[in-house]
Amino acid sequence: MRKMFQTYEGKSVTISYDATRCIHVGECVRGLGQVFDTKKTPWIQPDNATAEDVADVIKRCPTGALKFIRRDGGVAEQPEAVNCVTVSEDGPLYAQGRIQINRPNGSVLLNDTRVAFCRCGATMHPPYCDGKHEKTGFSASGNKPPACPASEEEVKKGEILRITPMKNGPLILEGPVKIHTASGECIFQGNKAALCRCGASVMKPFCDGAHARIGFKSE
Ligand code: FES
Q1: Cα of 82 to ligand 1 centre, how many Å?
Q2: 66 and 88 inside one domain
Q3: What is the pTM of this model?
Q4: Are 209 and 195 in contact (CB under 8 A)?
């Protein structure tokens, strides 16, 4: 049986791959085909490029499914200075920065720099996107202007953005964050927001309470 989490050790860089968080965006195979080649076994061959090139491509993986550890003394991945969530077209919410995912009881589930959060409500691996939006035909513009005005609170650099998936409810964001449309327009900047993860809000990407009406269930 194929393992969902694998590491591939090279001489100058070790690559890890979490299949449960991969939605085949394809930055890796397009960016460095000699390292990431799904026709080969193993499909990741870390020694076929420099550690620097491997790191540059992995940092473009928006889901965080790919990670690297430099073994050549090169610098580790640094989070983006400003935390950001990008609303994709018919797809997930891509978070970048100092991201901390918390359980509703406050305990930490994960610290990461890149995460794709489900916003259609159909994922089998909540709160992460697993690509189910394509099978269910989820349709939600990544460029729709928000129904509520953008906050203009100051957004500090280098601070943690805590994201808590609430039981049967939205993603609660606490900490400095900018929210962008798919085309890059900033639609929110501030320190607190609730983002829809059930797929039913008419104020996407924000939660409007529709999760209660539709009986959304998710831990
Ligand atoms: S989580 Fe979708 S409306 Fe609240």
Answers
A1: 25
A2: no
A3: 0.94
A4: no
